[in-house]
Known about the structure:
By secondary structure, the chain is an alpha+beta fold. It contains six helices and seven strands; from the N terminus they run E-E-H-E-E-H-H-E-E-H-E-H-H.
Amino acid sequence: MSRNRVTPGRTTADTQGDVVVLLIGMRINRFRAVHLWLPVMLAMLRMLRELRSDSTRGLLSRVLLTASPRTYYVVQYWQSKEQLYAYATAPDAFHHKAWAMVNRKEKAGKLASRVGLWHEAYIVPEGSYEAIYGDMPPFGLAAAHGQIPLERRGRYAKDRFAHRSQGAQTAE
């Protein structure tokens, strides 16, 4: 299914088990320091291309967003926290080179107050998330895990929160 094709009606994400979400971004603190923040932005885009070209790394989907003219971030959905950690620490991944560059500039005092970096990681247990999409192409959790008719998980949010995948049901 095309990621741009609208799925008519109400749908939900076809998630199974825990959901791994990483929010990662940057804030331009000084617009004139383009030579410092532009490489950070380009590095993130390069990492996303690297991850898209190698699905075994575990990135399922991502959404690029802006919070203001200064703040840009990516919501990433990962297959597992282990794969997220593995990518973050892999010596062969561009992430390793990018952080080495950031650490060198930070140590030399070149980034101070010019560009901000941040990330938040969440492991969301099954039963602690739900999703609904109306006349939307696969987006967010649905782009990462698939999109199914809403009725398969429940018409109301409380029903979708109560849904348990097969593996979770047999473990109880």
